[in-house]
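User: Small ask, check this?
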Amino acid sequence: MSVHVPILIGLQGLQITQQEFDENAEINLQISSKMAKSIPKTCIFVHDSPEEIEEKIEAAYCAPKEVWGNPVLQMAKHIIFNEKSTLGISRSQKYGGPERFESYEALEKAYVKGSLHPLDLKKGVAEALIEILSPAREYFRTHPQNLEKMREIEITR
């Protein structure tokens, strides 16, 4: 038995490389750009603090109106909407007020249309990830020896 999940692009976005992982150029680009624990600033760890998650997501590649190669939208699609039924976006009335998306498709449509700014998307995704990962953070808070073991294996290159 095996478990298959989509490859998430690292927070730095798509990275062109000369290495060949697959004969399909699109798949090759995805593989070469994958989120990797060996590059801590480009990935989210289950034990990251809320502040670390916010900083990493804020620095993430997130081109306006672009879906392809957008790691923030990928996290919304493959993580947030698999754990939650909605994604809330907090923003001031000056920028359209708070918004709630009931599906990834609705979120993507608003983003492509330009009615959702990249910074607002990033803040909403960061807040949702912080909430989703809170049980893992609590576990490691109460089991610090396991957090140390996890940190020992985090960086492998």
